[in-house]
Specification:
Largest sheet: 5 strands, antiparallel
Order of helices and strands: HHEEHEEEHHEHEEHEEHEE
Strand order of the largest sheet: 2-1-5-4-3
Radius of gyration: 43 Å
Structural class: alpha+beta
Helix content: 40-55%
Distance between the termini: 59 Å
Number of strands: 12
Number of helices: 8
């Protein structure tokens, strides 16, 4: 699809530029008679110089394409044609017609001009004086032939220009369509992955509903197992749809950040505290090292969402008896948040891809999540002008490093947090 679109764009662009060049060239060359005549006279002057240099030994006259539309006549002191050079198959003229043409040119007022010659059309002429003895040289050009010559000359130049324009347009259109193609592929992958992720919980819900409907005589309590499965998958489906909506809105730049001034360390503790029991249930040691009263301007709820994503992943992938550490420190005009664990780790080749949507290091563990959390985390960090990166060693643990600028907009330059 994109190849055909690229080809169409290139052809349309080349045609528009080609037609424009042709029209401009025709107007410049043939729309200005004075310019055209001067160009013809320069050509005739060049022909005369060549003939003077070689005189009657001008054997390669017809080998030069730019000389083939000209006729050269040398005239003796009394006005008789002495040496004539006529391009082959170009000008068919009799001796009488030639003598009449020479006579009219010699009888003209100037050294150049036009001669309307019977039914033969119009000729341009240019007169040269060869020496003090009175010998002259006349160069004639058939106006119709020379016009066609210039037309083909301009056409050939436009053809070469069109070829260059086509190549340039092909290159530029490829560059222009590259991000569109990438976005299209990303959208196609997003749709396919979303459909796959939605299919699983919907299938589970449908299966458990069928089990309940097949046993309608049973009590609600006796079918609690199937109903609980439906609830779990429904909650999972809701979270998945919310995450998909978040990413779709971020792509469309529809997400709005509710900016406020808050203490980042306090916001993080609001998330870490309720996760402590979950960590203790797996005998995981969860420790923090925060610099107090770290002021931040941004979306407090999004920072909480970021913390939930990183902390949930750390707890999920850390073995019983492991350790999770969360650090928060200011460094010059930046604040650095580090979430590290002693979990299963991530292989080196997977690290560049873990922030991609729906990407999972271990597809067999797809029941744990849809692979959207880190993509949302990256979006939150980028929206606040920060960066997020990961360092990991298999079976030793993973570290996520978030660096955020300590920004104060005009609303909070004088109003500090807590005042």
């Amino acid at each position: 699809m994109f190849f055909k679109l690229r080809l169409k764009l290139t052809i349309y662009n080349s045609l528009i530029i080609g037609i424009t060049l042709l029209l401009v060239s025709m107007v410049v060359v043939f729309g200005s008679p004075g310019l055209f005549e001067k160009t013809v006279q320069r050509e005739m002057g060049y022909v005369a110089e060549k003939q003077v240099a070689k005189r009657t030994r001008f054997r390669n006259f017809n080998r030069h394409s730019h000389l083939k539309d000209y006729m050269v006549v040398e005239v003796d002191t009394i006005g008789n044609p002495r040496a004539i050079t006529i391009p082959q198959n170009k000008i068919n003229i009799s001796q009488l017609e030639l003598e009449a043409l020479v006579e009219r040119a010699l009888g003209g007022r100037g050294n150049s001009g036009e001669i309307r010659f019977n039914q033969r059309g119009t000729f341009y002429y240019l007169l040269f004086h060869l020496g003090a003895n009175g010998e002259k040289m006349l160069v004639f050009a058939d106006k119709a032939a020379i016009t066609i010559h210039f037309f083909y000359k301009v056409l050939s130049m436009i053809s070469v220009s069109l070829l260059l324009v086509f190549c340039g347009s092909w290159f530029i259109s490829g560059k222009a369509l590259k991000p569109i193609n990438k976005a299209w592929q990303r959208q196609m992958e997003f749709t396919a992955d979303a459909s796959h992720e939605l299919r699983t919980p919907l299938s589970v819900i449908r299966t458990n509903l069928e089990l309940v409907m097949d046993n309608q005589e049973q009590t609600v309590v006796s079918q609690d197992r199937w109903l609980m499965n439906i609830k779990i998958e429904t909650d999972r489906l809701i979270r998945l749809v919310e995450n998909l909506l978040t990413l779709a809105r971020s792509d469309a730049h529809q997400q709005t950040m509710e900016t406020s001034c808050f203490y980042l360390d306090e916001a993080l503790m609001e998330i870490i505290t309720p996760h402590q029991p979950l960590a203790l249930s797996k005998n995981i040691l969860l420790t923090t090292d925060f610099e107090s009263k770290v002021e931040m301007v941004g979306d407090k709820n999004r920072f909480k969402q970021l913390t939930v994503i990183l902390l949930d992943n750390a707890i999920k992938y850390t073995h019983d008896g492991g350790r999770i550490e969360i650090l928060l420190h200011k460094k010059e005009k930046m604040v650095e948040l580090v979430v590290s664990d002693s979990g299963i780790g991530i292989a080196k080749e997977h690290i560049p891809k873990i922030f991609d949507r729906f990407y999972r290091v271990d597809p067999a563990r797809s029941h744990i999540g849809a692979g959207l959390g880190l993509a949302i985390a990256q979006w939150i960090v980028k929206e606040h002008g920060g960066t997020i990166s990961a360092e990991s060693v298999v079976d030793k643990g993973t570290r996520f490093i978030i660096k955020l600028p300590l920004r104060y907009d005009s609303l909070f330059t004088t109003c500090r947090c807590g005042k």
